[in-house]
Design goal:
The protein has 401 residues and is mainly beta. The protein is built from 2 helices and 28 strands. The protein is globular, with a radius of gyration of 31 Å. The chain starts with 8 loop residues before the first helix and ends with a strand.
């Protein structure tokens, strides 16, 4: 018979007590580890709003047609000196924009489809507050608005701020006139063969347009927004031999137009018909040999003083190269017509001066970069800021100040 040793009662009590102690220790260790692993609870997030009140007036507005998802365009607002994004406004399907004379309002003419990429079309003029970047109101437009890339001159307010003109294309061209005071469409002006809106400064409601026959049409509106007079200029250019860029630079009633081959023409838009003031070739003797030509979407900028012009130039120019980005930036003294400075082009496709004349601002047509330079008379440029990607397809820029 085999006899097994049995633990004594005392041993069993000690073992039970040790198991309890070990279990308690493991529980405490686990609890401490859990406490160490859990981070402190984060404070609850709250949503708020801010405005640009008190922010710098040195701002740049960049229109981005967002061509890869064109129903979702954007207008971005940047601090020009710091290169900081301040805010953004949606511009819908190929929306075009303009600023009011005081830069307190942003006008966006755009299109929305009820199913984003299809469905019922609604064209609208949206009026945004430039301080809050909030929508103030909208006016439904006839479904004729020109759905184009972002160009200056397709949406423009009249000199008195009462009317806003919107370029149409069905493809027949016309201009919709919106009464901003009454917030309604008041007229449609047929403009066959003419394109772009360039308001006079000295008349409350007069604008001019470039026409394919080489003339400039001028439309004068009455107090209700109806056509009171329409006249055309003499033939000013040959659209087959040397067409003009339809984007212009304006200093009051002075409008500067640039041709594809580098002829800069100044017009006086104050009267019932546009009048030629001067015309000068910007190409020196050496330029034709290298086939230098201007190119871009806002291919040149005129300083607010009226003395200087900066032009985005590319070499090996040819038929169809008029949108090519710059290889060089050429600065001209408009008093003498002479080139006074050269700078690297940096792919520039659009240029504008600040209204203060202290900055030159440019969009790179290849990378979408926004560059801002400090301007010194004579064409000396010192870079203040750069935004590497100001938009996906950024083409149009305007200055707040």
């Amino acid at each position: 018979m085999q006899v097994r040793d049995q633990p004594s009662p005392a041993f069993r009590r000690v073992a039970a007590q040790a198991a309890v102690v070990l279990s308690a220790g493991l529980a405490l260790a686990g609890q401490a580890a859990t406490q160490r692993a859990q981070p402190p609870e984060l404070p609850a997030e709250t949503l708020g709003t801010a405005t640009l009140a008190g922010a710098t007036s040195e701002r740049v507005y960049v229109g981005d047609v967002a061509i890869a998802h064109i129903a979702d365009g954007k207008l971005r607002v940047f601090d020009a000196r710091a290169g900081k994004l301040l805010g953004m406004v949606n511009t819908g399907f190929a929306g075009n924009f303009a600023l009011s004379a005081r830069s307190d309002e942003i006008y966006v003419a755009t299109t929305y489809l009820s199913r984003l990429g299809r469905g019922e079309r609604t064209d609208v003029l949206e009026v945004w507050d430039s301080t809050t970047l909030g929508l103030k109101y909208e006016v439904v437009l006839p479904p004729k608005r020109a759905q184009t890339l972002n160009y200056r001159g397709l949406v423009r307010p009249s000199a008195n701020g009462r009317f806003l003109m919107v370029q149409n294309a069905t493809p027949a061209t016309s201009v919709t006139v919106v009464d901003l005071a009454d917030r309604k469409v008041v007229a449609e002006v047929p403009t066959p063969g003419c394109w772009g809106v360039w308001p006079a400064a000295s008349h409350p409601a007069r604008f001019s347009m470039l026409c394919g026959d080489g003339k400039v049409a001028t439309v004068t509106l009455d107090d209700t927004g109806q056509v009171a007079d329409r006249q055309t200029s003499a033939k000013l250019f040959d659209a087959d031999q040397d067409p003009w860029f339809h984007t212009a630079e304006q200093l009051g009633d002075r409008a500067f137009f640039l041709s594809f081959k580098g002829l800069l023409t100044e017009l006086d838009l104050s009267g019932p018909a546009a009048a030629l003031k001067s015309s000068v070739s910007l190409l020196g003797a050496a330029a034709p040999k290298a086939q230098w030509r201007p190119g871009g979407y806002q291919a040149f900028a005129v300083h607010p003083s009226g003395r200087w012009a900066v032009v985005a130039m590319h070499d090996k120019g040819r038929e169809g190269s008029h949108k090519s980005p710059a290889k060089q930036l050429w600065t001209f003294d408009l008093g003498t017509g002479k080139r006074v400075a050269l700078a690297p082009g940096r792919g520039t496709a659009s240029l504008t001066f600040s209204k203060s004349g202290q900055r030159l601002q440019a969009l790179d047509g290849t990378s979408g970069a926004l560059r801002v330079w400090q301007w010194s008379d004579g064409g000396k440029l010192k870079q203040l800021s750069m935004v590497k990607a100001a938009g996906e397809a950024a083409l149009h820029l305007e200055s707040h100040d």
